[in-house]
Structure to design on (330 residues):
DNA sequence: ACTATGGTGTAGCAATGGCTACATTGTGCA
DNA sequence: TGCACAATGTAGCCATTGCTACACCATAGT
């Protein structure tokens, strides 16, 4: 609606400041922006979550978490991992001394635990809903970072209700 | 395991080249790296998916898609949108002439359609599983980019089976 | 017909997250 | 005891995705 008329162009008629033409999709504007913002924040946090979880795993399995192992598990070059670990330190999630291993702070450990729990819940739900195990594991790696607490609680209730898990 | 002994350090014992110590978590290494790689690709594609979907929406609603509207809907500054639109053009998903609107190519339109369909499916599934509508909508914005075809098919089957949708 | 206004575009900065290449450190083994 | 070699770290490059500031265009109204 509100298509042009004159000119051959478009981008026209001095679209009201909001470009919010009709009225139907009007309301969705700010809300939608919020959603995208939220998704963006989640995206930027997801890297840290993956790292803390992986570091916790490595410490549990090997007694230590080393840059090279982290890099290999994530499929990136070691300087990339190194840089992100520096960020973890900056954000107070991990500590590390040169050539020594990497360790999680309390905050890092807490993050790792909640991430692991969330991961498991997401995988279980995907499987409960019929996704093949392999796909569920792979997809969860991306999905888990975007599941809100409210949705997570719903997952839990759903799984319990079905006698799953 | 394979914890150090000598020294006070760590990072030790000339860990076998794979650091793949025991044998249990060994097998997960390359697989896990694959998963993270996949998640990374998805992450980089997600921006383009959001844009094509939004452009299609705007064209459907307003007859045109303008940079400013896109920026507002996404909650970013207009130069940010402008830059991403340049990328869309580079990748053959959209066309645009200065000061004219933005249009999708066939590839862009195809992407928009599949993204929209996926989005709906994800929202429906989240709701079917008990997530509050608001959370479902918001979470789907992030989740949709990480759902594989296999999982998507499972979602569809699940929803049909329940008489949903 | 002109001008005010707002949409568009461009430039340049910062942070993130990849990479390769090179320097450094530490440990294991000869 | 010392050296070779792998693990770490550092430097510097590129691309992406934000931003602000500033320049430019096009339309609406006077």
């Amino acid at each position: 609606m509100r298509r042009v008329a004159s000119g051959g162009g478009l981008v026209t008629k001095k679209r009201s400041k909001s470009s919010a033409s009709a009225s139907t999709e009007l309301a969705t504007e700010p809300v939608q922006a919020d959603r995208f913002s939220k998704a963006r924040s989640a995206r930027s946090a997801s890297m840290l979550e993956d790292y803390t979880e992986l570091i916790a795993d490595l410490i549990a399995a090997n007694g230590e978490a080393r840059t090279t192992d982290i890099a290999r598990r994530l499929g990136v070059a070691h300087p990339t991992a190194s840089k992100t670990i520096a960020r973890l330190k900056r954000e107070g999630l991990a500590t590390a001394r040169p050539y020594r291993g990497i360790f999680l702070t309390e905050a890092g450990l807490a993050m790792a635990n909640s991430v692991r729990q969330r991961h498991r819940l997401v995988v279980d739900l995907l499987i409960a809903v019929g996704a093949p195990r392999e796909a569920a594991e792979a997809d969860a790696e991306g999905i888990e970072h975007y599941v809100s607490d409210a949705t997570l609680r719903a997952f839990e209730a759903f799984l319990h209700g079905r006698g799953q898990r």
Q: What stands out?
A: The domain at 27-105 of chain A is CATH 1.10.10.10 (Arc Repressor Mutant, subunit A). Residues 6-7, 9, 11-14, 40, 66-68, 78-79, 82, 98-99 of chain A lie near DNA strand D (CB under 10 Å from a C1').
